[in-house]
Amino acid sequence: MSFTSPPGPVSSADGEIDGEVTGGVQVWRQTVVDAAHEPRAYRFAAGHSGDSHRALDPVVSDVGLHALTDGRRTFVDFSGRDFAAHDRYGGGERLFPPDQVVLEVDGALVGADDLTDLERLQDAGYRIAVSQPAALPVEPALFGIADYVTVDVGVCDPDDVTDLAAGLRGSTVGLVATGVDTPALFDWCLIGGFELFQGRAAGRPPVRGPESVAPAQFLALRLIQALAADADIDQLEELVSADPGLSVQLMHGANSAVFSGTDGITSLHQALVLMGRGVLSVWATRAALLGGTPGVPAEAVWTAVARGLSCRRLVAGSGATAYTIGLLSGVAEGLGLPLPQLLDVISAGPALHAAAAGTDASGGPGAAGQALAAVLAYERADVDGVLASGLAPDEVCDVYLRALADALVRLKRLGL
């Protein structure tokens, strides 16, 4: 994907988004993919003290929708709102632009009086998604304004889902399957006519072996590890220069428009100094994911960097190990490798192996592993998993959303 420049929000000088994001609410962002497992949209759900329908407003107001989605189509939970009071959805500065946002409503809760207000929102340019219990028929009037129907296939009776899909076959309504948590369920939904998919198995690449890691990717992984170990510039240069193609890529990145104030890069050493360790780690993550293995979505880079930033911010101290294990977990997932196997491939040290296992070097609970467990649970929208990590869901949500925005800024700095 090409990361387009966000129109906002305002960032600090080091590329980090200023201010609190969620204000104490829990907002869960989930990726929606197509039949080829390519990311096509995001779906936001929120929950806090029974007021979930208002949780997204402060998030989008503080951070900006673009910073969380990079302009992709966005399904927003609209259930529970006063449909008639949609000032934020019309005129002036819109928090949720109609050309990007799909308003998702609970089909079991929409009354006849709500239809007129939903039609007005649709006339303003919004698409409407009906979240539908498969056992219930789609109300004809609601069906008439639905652009999408979303079904949680993980909890609905398969026969009911089949009947619902058959009833919509041939219409212009798009079918979205949520709760797609196994590859078999993904395949079943695909055969049944669903177009978009969200769940634990939706975006997972096939599991590969370590032989799938190309030499340039291996060197990029070693570069991430060397940066975590605080290797000096000469050591980094020796590592990168072992692959001429990787060296050229790095110099090209340093010559991007971001560094246009220079007179041009004339050496690998100069490129390493100019880019700095923070930018280098992002660049190395990109090279590790996209440097040779086919079928890896470019969006995996964004996820990996966001994980690294989140893990680092959830631990006390410098957080170098937490940042690195977050990056490498994203790389491992993007490559379709178990994290321990990836760590073996690069001969990672005991601290990283311990973090992957959720412990410290002595075998006790480890802060880096705790942070990684919380971040992975957040990505699954698993509040119980976040709680089991020992961290507060509100804090993890706030840190992760800000990390997404910051990661996008850093990727833009590299021209990605």
TrEMBL record:
Signal peptide: none annotated. InterPro entries: HDOD, RNase_Y/CdgJ. Residues 213-406 form the HDOD domain. It comes from the Bacteria. It comes from Spongisporangium articulatum. This is EAL and HDOD domain-containing protein.
